[in-house]
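Structure (tokenized):
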């Protein structure tokens, strides 16, 4: 029996307790901007949507939340599956979703290890006793050699999907708390961590790292207080919060998300330093001064049309290399903190926030 997608389709905006933006980039949308917010699907006022992944073979959207994971049909937006710990999920708080070449779904959880799921097969969960680096799992990447790479709060794992054996890397990284993972055309691994960016070449064995001193993350022009909320403390204290006394903080070495672009440049979202692009051996930074909605960037993707989408602490930005289009409350965004982004096969962009999943699509030609 199909269930209704999440809880309800919001008819209007949902109030939230997020601070009002000090910038007004969301009010600068131009009339010929190509995209618009089409739907806000509610998941519960205090439910966080932390991860999204599209499974093209099933035409499904997988939604990882703080209360479980849902599978959504992209044909009619109905919920075809919903999983919690009672169904076999390691932990309800799902921070990362990976889909491998065999159709297995991998769910990285907050303090519960990672779980593997495929319809018709039993669930399987992996803990440190099985070789996993940590119980906190925050990113996945498929490598062309068939391996699955897993980012955790205690380094990264290379998982052989045939034997299910794992190899762990910790000391080689600039920092062990890994959130961003991707693979470039040369098969090199890129890691976005709490202390900068690292790259690993499996062929040569070479590791290289970059930090703010190398150009990663923009300067602190607003004189925001530096955040001390990093992995140097305990996991209990390490709450992923970006505010101090209700105000924004700054830590440009802290990378929330990373992706290798089609042109093989590397894009990362930082804490307070905006978006950074690594190209031709140098870092180039984009901030609110350039048109970005917020300088804390939780998520990013490159869409099939080549444009980049950024989920920030003040909304969503689309950047095609020349022009910006922004989405905030003025454009119908129900919550301005955007933690996850994904693109469906028809070109729609899906965004995960606190309380909702948002669908963004192209305007009809006559409306542009």
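Design, position by position:
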């Amino acid at each position: 029996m199909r269930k209704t997608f999440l809880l309800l389709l919001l008819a209007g905006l949902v109030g939230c307790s997020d601070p009002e933006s000090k910038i007004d980039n969301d009010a600068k949308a131009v009339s010929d901007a190509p995209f618009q917010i089409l739907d806000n699907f509610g998941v519960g006022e205090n439910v966080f949507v932390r991860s999204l992944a599209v499974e093209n073979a099933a035409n499904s959207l997988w939604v990882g939340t703080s209360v479980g994971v849902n599978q959504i049909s992209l044909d009619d937006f109905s919920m075809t599956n919903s999983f919690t710990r009672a169904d076999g999920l390691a932990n309800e708080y799902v921070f990362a979703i990976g889909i491998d070449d065999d159709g297995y779904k991998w769910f990285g959880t907050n303090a519960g290890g990672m779980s593997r799921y495929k319809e018709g097969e039993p669930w399987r969960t992996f803990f440190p006793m099985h070789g996993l680096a940590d119980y906190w799992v925050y990113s996945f990447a498929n490598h062309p050699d068939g391996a699955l790479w897993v980012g955790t709060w205690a380094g990264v794992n290379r998982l052989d999907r045939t034997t299910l054996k794992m190899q762990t890397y910790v000391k080689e990284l600039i920092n062990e708390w890994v959130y961003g993972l991707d693979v470039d055309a040369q098969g090199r691994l890129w890691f976005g961590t709490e202390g900068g960016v690292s790259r690993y070449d499996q062929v040569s064995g070479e590791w290289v790292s970059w930090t703010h001193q190398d150009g990663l993350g923009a300067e602190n022009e607003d004189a925001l207080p530096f955040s001390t909320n990093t992995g140097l403390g305990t996991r209990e204290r390490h709450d992923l919060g970006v505010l101090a006394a209700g105000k924004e903080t700054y830590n440009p070495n802290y990378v929330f998300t990373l992706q290798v672009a089609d042109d093989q440049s590397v894009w990362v979202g930082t804490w307070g330093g905006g978006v950074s692009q690594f190209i031709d051996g140098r870092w180039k930074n984009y901030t609110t001064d350039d048109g970005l909605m917020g300088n804390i960037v939780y998520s990013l993707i490159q869409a099939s049309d080549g444009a980049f989408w950024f989920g920030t602490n003040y909304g969503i930005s689309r950047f095609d290399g020349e022009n910006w289009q922004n989405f905030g409350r003025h454009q119908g965004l129900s919550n301005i903190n955007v933690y996850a982004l994904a693109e469906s096969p028809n070109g729609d962009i899906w965004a995960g926030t606190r309380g909702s999943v948002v669908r963004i699509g192209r305007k009809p030609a006559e409306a542009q």
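Reviewer-requested clarification: The chain has one domain: 18-367. The domain at 18-367 is CATH 2.130.10.10 (Methylamine Dehydrogenase; Chain H).
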